Amino acid sequence: MIRNEKFEGERPLYRRSEIEIVDCKFENGESAIKEGKDLVSRRCNFNSKYPFWHCRHIEIEDSLFDEMGRAAVWYSSGISLKDSKVIAPKIFRDASDIKISRCKMNTNETLWDCNDIFIEDTDFFGDYLLFHSNNIFLNEFRLDGNYAFQHCRHLEIQNSTIRSKDAFWNSEDVTLRNCSIDGEYLGWYSKNLTLIDCEIRGTQPLSYAENVTLIGCTMIDTDLAFELSSVNVEVLSVIQSVKNPRSGMIKAEGISELIMEEEEVNPKDTTITYLKEKVGCNCHEV
C-alpha cells in the first residue's frame, strides 16, 4: 500500500503491479503509473497527464481527475471507475472492458475507439462522447453535450436523458428504451436505430437513415422528420411535419404537415395511417 504521498515528474510508479494507492496526489508530470497492472486507487487526485497508459486491471474509486489529468486511461483494459469526478478531457481512448458508475464527468472527446463499455447512474457533460466505440450498455445515464455516439456499433441505452445535437450519426445497431432525447438532426445516416417508449425533440430527426424503428414513442416539436429514410414507426402524438420518407410505414396520432415530393420519392412506397381521427391537429398534405 502507498498512502499519503505526492508524486511528480515522469513515470514515478512505472510498471508497478499489485499495489493500492490511497490518498495520494499526482502533479506536474506524466505517465505516472504507465504499464502497471492489478492497481487500486482510492481518494487520489490526478493532476498530471497520462497516468494510466497501457495498464491492465485498474480499480479507481472516489478520485478526481483534475484539469491537467488529461488523456488519463489510454490503451488499457479491465477498468472500473466509480464515485469519482472528472474535469479533464479525453479520459478514455483505445481502451476495453470499462465500467463507470456514480460518476460526474466533464470531459470532451472521451471514450473514443473503446470496446465493451458499461455505464450507470453517471452524468456526462462534453462533446463527442463515445465516438467510434462498440458493445456499449448505458443505464440511468445523463448527457449534455453535442455529437455523441457517432459511428457507434451495438449500443443499448435505457432510462436515460440525452441532450445532444447530431447524436447517433452513422451509428449501427442501436436500441434506446424509456429515454428522453433532445437535439437537432438525430440519427442521420444511421442503420438499425430502434427507439422504444422514448420522447424525441428537435428539428429534422431520423433522416437519411436505414431501418428506423419507433415503438410507442412521442415526438414533440419535431419537424421535417424521416427525410429519405426507411421507417417502421409508431408515434403516440401528432408529428409536426414529415418530409419525403423513402419507404416503410408511419403510424401516428396525426401529421400536421406531410410533404411528399414525387421527384424525390414514390409516395406509394410509404404507408401512412392515423391512430385516431385528425380532429384539431390542422393536418394537411403538401
Structure overview:
This protein is mainly beta and 286 residues long. The protein contains no helices and 28 strands. The chain has an eight-stranded parallel beta barrel. The C terminus is likely disordered.
Structural class call reads mainly beta
Total helices: the number is 0
Strand order of the largest sheet: 17-18-20-22-24-23-21-19
Roughly how many Å is the radius of gyration?
A: 23 Å
Shape: elongated
Average pLDDT value? 95
What string, H for helix and E for strand, traces the elements in order?
EEEEEEEEEEEEEEEEEEEEEEEEEEEE
Uncertain parts: 278-286
Helix content estimate: under 10%
- Total strands: the figure is 28
State the end-to-end CA separation: 72 Å
How would you summarize the topology of this molecule?
Layout: E1 2-3, E2 6-10, E3 17-22, E4 25-30, E5 37-42, E6 45-49, E7 52-53, E8 56-61, E9 64-65, E10 73-74, E11 77-82, E12 85-86, E13 92-93, E14 96-101, E15 104-106, E16 115-125, E17 134-144, E18 153-158, E19 161-163, E20 172-177, E21 180-182, E22 191-196, E23 199-201, E24 210-220, E25 230-243, E26 247-259, E27 270-274, E28 284-285
Parallel strand pairs: 1-3, 2-4, 3-5, 4-6, 5-8, 6-9, 7-10, 8-11, 9-12, 10-13, 11-14, 12-15, 14-16, 15-16, 16-17, 17-18, 17-19, 18-20, 19-21, 20-22, 21-23, 22-24, 23-24, 24-25, 25-26, 26-27, 26-28
